[in-house]
Design brief:
The complex is a heterodimer of chains A (about 180) and B (about 190). With about 180 residues, chain A is mainly α. Chain A has helices at about 1-15, 20-35, 40-50, 55-95, 105-135, 145-155, 160-175; strands at about 135, 140. In chain B, about 80% of the residues lie in helices and about 0% in strands. The chains are: A mainly alpha (about 180), B mainly alpha (about 190).
Chain lengths: ~180, ~190
């Protein structure tokens, strides 16, 4: 029963979630934390681990959430359910629409979608802020320093391993 | 051209899935150089079409692109085989972490390292959001839509699906409006 629920939720995510990695995982955060598949701390840790594991971040998070809920069967179900809508949509496009892709109306629909995805990503920052800044009930204001560093380094496309190492060391020695 | 064997599709896409650490745009260029330059399975132009279409559809972009490429080489079977192969490394590595590394993740020193890393993750997401906002079209209607969506997402637990549908609808109506204003109708589709 839990597997069917998991499957339906991830099918929905696969069908509608748009905007690449971060957009998709913001969706999983919104729905998954609410339903108790994954805690906020676990979610945040998995984003970090996904930076150093192979493959798309949305797959990593889906697999981990499924494993949390129902072990290896759960992981298989959530991961497959996330990608099966892509099979259907891509094959439909190949069969019927390939010459209508990338026309103005498609682009315009995507413009509207992107705005909503961005709003979802921004709203997902608030709980992640709480997970990052509040440690055992204390607000760690000094954490703005590693936050500023990590934001700057990611914007400048510096090596992500360095970012994880520096913020990890900050966690060990300063928090 | 000689037909590509399913086994070769599997090994190639498994390799691509293994070396695209962290995913994202870097992963796309690795996929491209592998399929177009190294294997010479499809041309650069076809690849760019697949990337554009893959990004325009919902779902994981790498999976979408693997479906297009696999289908081009070996039909529907090829598409399914390629996309499963490309996600397998991600799946296996997370299962490995979940099964074997959980005790390590729960060690106090690792936990305190992660309390710092969680702040770093915020920075990574902020920069991803910034990069996305940078290339978006900021018409007045989209700003209003974005603000309303943001408030709803913050204040309620509404499933994002409904707002995604509304966003798509607003985008489509915006297209309709622009077409009507210019009065050139359907011819615009061919641009």
């Amino acid at each position: 029963m839990i597997l069917i629920k998991l499957m339906l939720d991830f099918l929905a995510i696969g069908f509608i979630s748009y905007g690449g990695g971060i957009g998709m995982i913001s969706y999983i955060q919104k729905v998954g934390v609410q339903k108790g598949w994954i805690t906020l701390d676990q979610f945040s840790d998995m984003i970090a681990l996904s930076q150093v594991t192979p493959g798309p971040i949305a797959i990593n998070i889906a697999t981990y959430s499924g494993y949390n809920v129902a072990g290896i069967p759960g992981a298989i179900v959530s991961t497959l359910a996330l990608v099966i809508p892509s099979f259907i949509l891509v094959f439909l496009v190949i069969k019927f629409f390939s010459k209508h892709m990338n026309t103005k109306w498609m682009e315009s629909i995507l413009d509207g979608l992107r705005v909503v995805v961005l709003a979802l990503i921004l709203s997902s920052l608030i709980p992640l802020f709480e997970a990052g800044f509040i440690v055992q009930g204390d607000i760690k204001w000094l954490s703005v320093l590693p936050l500023a560093y990590a934001t700057w380094a990611s914007l400048k496309k510096r090596n992500i391993l360095t970012v994880l190492a520096v913020t990890g060391l900050w966690g060990i020695f300063m928090m | 051209m000689e037909e590509v064997s399913l086994w070769e599709l599997i090994t190639t896409f498994f390799t691509i899935g293994s070396i695209t650490i962290g995913g994202g745009p870097g992963g796309l260029s690795i996929t491209q150089s592998y399929i177009v330059d190294k294997k010479k399975w499809i041309t650069q132009d076809e690849m760019l079409d697949f990337i554009t279409m893959g990004q325009s559809l919902p779902g994981v972009i790498t999976v979408n692109i693997s479906l297009f490429v696999g289908h081009k080489l070996r039909g529907y079977k090829g598409g399914i085989v390629a996309s499963i192969a490309v996600i397998l490394p991600a799946f296996l590595s997370i299962i490995g972490i979940a099964v074997f590394l959980r005790p390590v993740l729960e060690m106090p020193i690792v936990q305190s390292a992660f309390s710092g890393v969680r702040v770093g993750v915020l920075g990574i997401i902020i920069s991803a959001a910034y990069r996305m906002a940078e290339v978006m079209k900021w018409k007045k209607i989209y700003i209003i839509l974005g603000l309303i969506a943001l408030i709803i997402f913050i204040l309620t637990d509404l499933n994002p699906v409904s707002l995604f549908v509304i966003g798509a609808l607003v985008g489509f109506l915006q297209y309709k409006k622009e077409v009507d204003v210019r009065g050139i109708g359907k011819q615009d589709d061919t641009n």
